[in-house]
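FYI - complex with FE2/S2 (inorganic) cluster, inputs then prediction.
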Amino acid sequence: MNEMTPIAPSPEDLEKCLVIGPEAYVSKDYALAERDRLWRKVWLQAGRVEDLPTVGDFITYAILDDSVIVMRTSPDGLRAYHNVCPHRGRRLIDTPPGQRNARGSRRSIICGYHGWSFDLEGRNIYIEYQDDWQGCLTAERTGLGAVQVDTWGGWIWINLDPDAGSLNEYLSPAASLLEPYQLHNMRPRWRRWLEFGCNWKVAMEAFAETYHVSTTHPEFNVFAKFRGWARNQGLHSNIGYEAPKGLEEDAGKLRVGGGDDPRLSTEEMQLFTWENANTNTTRTMVEAAKRLKTELPPGTPAAEVSRHWIKSAREDDARRGVIWPDVAPEHTAKAGTAWQIFPNFQIGHAVNNMLCYQARPVSVDEPERCIFEAAVYELYPAGEEPATEWEYTEPSAWPPVLQQDFANMAAVQAGMKNIGFRGAQPNPYMERSIASLHMNLARFIGMGAPQPPEQ
Ligand code: FES
Ligand SMILES: [Fe+2]
């Protein structure tokens, strides 16, 4: 970086060349600043509402040194507490070894050290030999510390900052642009996580742009190649494909009709995606794609194949009680195919399924490690939702397409420390989401702002 005062980029600057220094990905100082100025200030996605169906159900969520208990306290009420005993600081609910988080159901929380106990509302209900404190233990000093909690999209969101603004305000404009997709109705098909040897941002950025697809996932090139865009959306960003004219719904993402016979290439693409990524599609869509060659004559144009395929899959699902929301093509063009929710959550949305990623740091002393997780959701007939748990999954057991991304994550983390690396130069059009992330991070953290290249 040059010696001039660093610029604080604005959203307009994201459309030009910017360079991101490697400090944000490797420095312990930066990781510590993130803990204090980022993770303790922002709204974080901490779990799904459906994981807490009954009063007393709880989950924990950990971010660096902080752990939070989210508790269902009434049929439509959730509360969140700092997962720490006000007596001498024991973590109240331990995460079982090898688990992503603790999950269970309690009528009260009892500290395992000296037995202080708390009701679901976080009030202290038992202290042995309380008189020994000679009356100085107030309800405030003996109850659990409250953490802000709210819900949107079927997720539970927490904020460690008692003075933070509302979740609704924070998620703008992502929440309103995603509202037509009714994401709260989707349920997970699978959920996997692992600890990975890269900074959490390297992990998120591996999925926050479409520029890498043709090189990292060359198998998809035979189906078609569409150009992808990325837009700044305030704190957040979104990405999408420039779908060819005449294709509807999520055609840009689904990339039908690249081959000579769009009936067959749609089927091949669907089978490939189902088997090698297990994301971005559903069994209904795969089955409907397999029927295209018998339902449509040879020579049917790509746009017609796409329309027929989506329509018949929609009807198949409707027959089993799975109703896709209607989203106008003009809206799809604005909403794109995935949102990067600041700072560490990505929602890859569609009308009938979604693919979400999250990455979190593990320790301020280890900026080159993160917890990475992915979950695939879809719409199910009421009562037929599968019961899924977060499964720890070694890299070699993830779907092959994700392993291709993992290979980049490890190699990028290694390359960034190379003395010869001069900083990342994201594509100002296709990778604007990455510059947008660092612009916003710099506003919270006070360092690491993307800079124009030195001349
Ligand atoms: S630390 Fe919890 S009761 Fe003592
Ligand atoms: Fe990828």
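Residues 212, 216-217, 405 surround fe (ii) ion (ligand 2) (CB under 6 Å). The two ends are 11 Å apart (CA to CA).
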